[in-house]
Design goal:
The complex is a heterotrimer of chains A (about 270), B (about 280) and C (about 325).
Chain A (H helix, E strand, L loop, with lengths): L1 H27 L2 H10 L1 H16 L7 H18 L3 H11 L1 H6 L5 H31 L8 H26 L8 H13 L13 H9 L7 H7 L5 H36 L2
Helix pairs in contact in A: 1-7, 2-7, 3-4, 4-7, 4-11, 5-8, 8-11, 8-12
Chain B lengths: L3 H6 L3 H21 L2 H23 L7 E2 L2 E2 H35 L1 H6 L5 H7 L9 H15 L6 H32 L5 H10 L10 H10 L7 H7 L7 H30 L2
Chain C lengths: L6 E16 L4 H9 L2 E16 L3 E5 L6 H9 L6 E6 L9 H4 L2 E5 L11 H12 L3 H15 L14 H13 L5 E5 L7 H18 L2 E6 L2 H7 L2 E6 L2 E7 H8 L2 E8 L5 H4 L4 E6 L2 E7 L3 H11 L2 E8 L2 H10 L2
Parallel strand pairs in C: 3-7, 3-8, 5-6, 6-7
Antiparallel strand pairs in C: 1-2, 1-4, 8-9, 10-12, 10-13, 11-12
Helix pairs in contact in C: 4-6, 5-6
The chains are: A mainly alpha (about 270), B mainly alpha (about 280), C alpha/beta (about 325).
């Protein structure tokens, strides 16, 4: 038993140091600021089109201007926090030899990448929050009818969505040990999933078949689910299902990564990366 | 800038530049062709993203036959032209913009400045990216599909105006890129420059009429995004503003002149600073 | 834990093969290649055995592609052997156990584990957390390394602003803060200028003396090895050509010394032949190869019998010895 608590403590200490460095790194890399701000505001473009539709045709599937504004303003934050570029970062490290250094540290490579992501996301959050608040005020009509209890659930949903997104990305990243196409394969996966996640449009606006599929697939967990939760559009049954699906996929992909990592490592040790 | 070497050799500067461009691009293509798997994979992805975009904008039309005065097929023309213009950006601008940091940090810019070829030419057009070679062509296909589905056949005049406006749009995009390259000379870094350009061009996925109020004005007058896809699409669809045929080329020339001036200024201050 | 003198590294019949698939040029070959791949087997390491005791400093010499780096990667666990047995500090490196990883370090020439956009200090702090170095130990190690590597004003500059030599010194510090028992150094002076190389060598020599760590160093610079290692392992084509002390290498493979003379007037081979093996003649200068035992005698005779303006006696450059060892076969 002490073995496990000891390992947990070691890992925690390592995480503290790694996340700290990741924060410093993310802050130092100023070039990224431009792309964060720009890509984070993209949802607002989609919102503007919906506002046009509502203006001209009235509410769409029961969604009013206020609903769309609230959804997309929050989406500006949620998209950025829960999406991951891990697959490409991982691929870079594989190609330029940095993976060797990572492999020789007494901390798992998974943890090294995850801590890096945590650092980047925290900095992104810090920069985006004020921008999003300003956007919300400027756009007006943004409402979230949620109390502190539900807000906590939203935070949990975002955290789990983030973890799922990272684990899923890293599972795809493993493909990089065998092929140069891991990024492209992940793009296809993510692209298809964008329709089922709430990224292209709020899921309630999609045909029923897609909505049902989205409820059981992993894509909604990082995008639509926290947003729908925030907008108060889910009853407790939906909420429970949402969390169950998220956790289920998280465990699933963790397992996939675990198995895949062993194979990937053997491959790396056989051919030298 | 006079090209003394070109005149001495007897070939006109223009011929020489065209030949050089051919050589540069052939080299870029040859390098990328080596990665055949990527070549094919990128073609597949191009088709995927095109379909993705076409279906994506379709969602709006589940609730309306027209948005901002545009029907779904008409919107597809804009999306198609976006892929074409964006494809040109990724092929001809991004590779060169990304290399700016390298040029400056490695001092290659100095090296390029001493060559008897216009630095602007060398820096802005040297490399061509081939990884999404299919995009421009696919974009035209989608635009044609949208055109057919909207039951419009462009007249000869309409088609000609489309070409003029499209070229003007691309030239304006090049001018903005050149201004960004100048900025990167000042800041000794091109980090984020391509992202800024990309962000700007991404807004051309949709016609400007779908944006409202301030944003729409901004994208027409402030950042000339409307020139990239909206105006050419309108010409093709036979609903364009005739005055644009004069205005667009003028704006294109003006922006290129301005950007070239900024570039020259940046180079002056650069060579002053590096000695 | 191994004590001084016990075997820290055991390599027994190490073999490492790679399958490289042959890719011919042309579209036809590429298409065929999709269906059926032709493989060549590259024998990067072909049956190597050696033991290294705790505290030893061993230099691996060999031309590029000899198998030095592959051997090092097998020892650090980055590669697993095709055949044979490797043990480092009692561990099988390929299993990558945390205890093993925490006791070794790998430094590669011209490659960094340092964060590019941050001061080196940030990398040091991360390593402290990852290797769980207690604060007092960390501070002491850092102070020592800063002095030995002369890092004073480098620590708060962004790594990307440092020169290659400065970066290498910071890299070494980052690699040694957790006081590993075994150091794997792969071409650590690669790409450095003369001053930079000297600095690294000086540091490694002091470090080896003070800390008693086991050091494996690969290089194709002879000077790296002569400066640091008493024992050399020569590798070429994946096989071991020599394993022993540097002094013995010189004695066995170069049982002669070089006598350089400058004559008053042109030197000619016939006159010089009786004194020794004429290695080269250039105008008034000549170089003779003379057996060690008779060097003094020969020098004396030369001075007495010929119009010698200048004479000097030198050892054969180790480079030449090594080249000869590799050239045989």
């Amino acid at each position: 038993m002490t073995d496990i608590t000891d390992s947990a403590r070691r890992l925690a200490i390592a995480y503290r140091g790694m996340v700290r460095a990741a924060l410093a790194n993310a802050l130092a890399y100023r070039g990224r600021l431009a792309i964060w701000l720009l890509t984070s505001l993209f949802p607002l473009i989609m919102m503007v089109v919906w506002l046009n539709v509502v203006d001209e045709q009235g509410p769409a599937a029961g969604w009013t201007s206020s609903d769309f504004a609230s959804y997309y303003v929050a989406a500006a934050l949620v998209f950025q926090v829960t999406q991951s570029y891990l697959v490409w970062i991982w691929d870079d490290d594989l190609r330029n030899g940095t993976m060797s250094f990572k492999l020789l540290k007494p901390v798992g490579v998974f943890h090294q990448f995850l801590s890096q992501e945590i650092g980047i996301r925290l900095v992104t959050l810090a920069f985006l929050l004020p921008v999003v608040v300003v956007a919300a005020l400027a756009i007006g009509d943004v409402q979230y009818a949620v109390g502190p209890a539900r807000l906590a659930l939203v935070a949990l949903a975002i955290l789990l969505g983030f973890l799922l997104s990272c684990t899923m990305a890293m599972s795809f990243a493993l493909i990089g040990f065998w092929s140069t196409q891991s990024g492209n394969l992940y793009s296809l996966w993510w692209g298809a999933g964008a329709f089922l996640s709430g990224w292209i449009a709020p899921l309630e606006l999609l045909p029923d078949a897609l909505r049902s599929a989205a409820t059981v697939l992993p894509f909604r967990s990082a995008v639509g689910f926290p947003l729908e939760l925030l907008l108060g559009r889910l009853d407790s049954g939906d909420v429970a299902v949402g969390f169950a699906v998220t956790v289920g996929w998280l465990v699933g992909f963790a397992f996939v990564f675990g198995m895949g990592w062993r194979a990937a490592l053997r491959r790396y040790q056989a051919v030298g990366g | 800038m006079t090209d003394a070497a070109g005149l001495v050799n007897g070939t006109s500067p223009r011929r020489r530049y065209l030949r050089l461009l051919g050589i540069f691009w052939r080299n870029s293509v040859a390098t990328e062709m080596e990665y055949r798997l990527n070549f094919v994979a990128n073609a597949i992805l191009s088709v995927f993203w095109l379909g993705w975009a076409a279906v994506g904008v379709g969602v709006y039309f589940r609730f309306a036959d027209e948005v901002g005065g545009w029907t779904y097929p008409e919107l597809l023309v804009v999306v198609g032209l976006f892929f074409t213009v964006n494809g040109v950006r990724q092929a001809m601008i991004t590779p060169n913009l990304a290399r700016m940091t390298e040029y400056i940090r490695m001092g290659t810019l100095d090296f390029l400045l001493t060559k008897p070829v216009d630095a602007q030419f060398m820096v802005s057009l040297r490399h061509v990216g081939v990884f999404n070679w299919l995009d421009p062509a696919l974009g035209i296909v989608l635009a044609a599909v949208g055109l057919a589905a909207s039951d419009r056949t462009p007249t000869a005049g309409g088609f000609a105006s489309f070409l003029v406006l499209l070229v003007a749009g691309v030239v304006i995009m090049y001018a903005v890129a050149l201004a960004l390259m100048s900025a990167s000379v000042w800041t000794v870094s091109s980090e984020g420059m391509d992202d800024v350009l990309q962000g700007m061009v991404e807004t051309a996925r949709l016609p400007v009429q779908l944006y409202r109020g301030v944003l729409q004005t901004l994208l027409t007058v402030g950042l000339p995004v409307a020139f990239l896809t909206t105006f050419p699409a309108e010409a093709l669809l036979g609903r364009g503003d005739v005055h644009l045929l004069v205005v667009a080329p003028l704006i294109a020339l003006a922006t290129v002149a301005a950007a070239t001036a900024i570039w020259r200024f940046a180079l002056h201050s650069y060579s002053g600073a590096s000695s | 834990m191994t004590g001084i003198g016990t075997d820290c590294i055991i390599v027994d019949g190490l073999v490492k093969h790679f399958r490289i698939h042959r890719r011919a040029a042309g579209l036809g070959a590429s298409l065929r290649g999709l269906v059926r791949r032709r493989y060549d087997v590259v024998r990067a390491v072909d049956d190597i055995s050696f033991n290294i005791a705790s505290g030893e400093v061993v230099g691996f010499l060999g031309p590029n592609g000899a198998g030095k780096t592959t051997t090092l990667k097998c020892l650090s666990g980055l590669l697993h052997p095709s055949a044979g047995r490797v043990r480092v500090l009692g561990h099988d490196p390929a299993r990558r156990q945390p205890d093993f990883l925490g006791a070794i370090t790998l430094v590669m020439g011209q490659r960094n584990q340092l964060f590019w956009d941050l001061p080196a200090m940030e990398t040091f702090l991360v390593n402290q957390a990852i290797y769980r170095v207690p604060p007092t130990q960390f501070r002491a190690a850092l102070e020592r390394l800063v002095v030995l590597l002369d890092l004073g004003d480098l620590l708060d500059k962004q790594v990307r602003q440092l020169s290659l030599g400065e970066r290498m010194r910071c890299e070494l510090a980052a690699a040694l803060l957790h006081e590993p028992q075994v150091l794997f150094l792969d071409e650590p002076t690669l790409g450095l200028d003369v001053a930079g190389q000297a600095a690294i060598r000086g540091f490694l020599a002091s470090y080896a003396n003070e800390r008693g760590a086991t050091i494996l160093l690969t290089s194709h610079y002879m000077a790296d090895v002569t400066a640091l290692a008493s024992r050399v392992v020569l590798i070429d084509g994946g096989t071991l050509r020599y394993d022993g002390s540097l002094a013995d290498l010189v004695a066995t493979h170069a049982p002669y010394r070089l006598v350089r003379i400058t004559l008053d007037g042109k030197a000619d081979a016939e006159t010089l032949a009786p004194y020794g093996d004429v290695a080269s003649i250039e105008g008034p200068e000549a170089v003779l190869r003379v057996p060690r035992e008779s060097t003094r005698d020969v020098a004396g005779r030369l001075l007495a019998e010929l119009p010698v303006v200048d004479v000097s006696i030198q050892d054969v450059p180790v480079e030449d010895i090594v080249r000869e060892v590799f050239a045989r076969d």
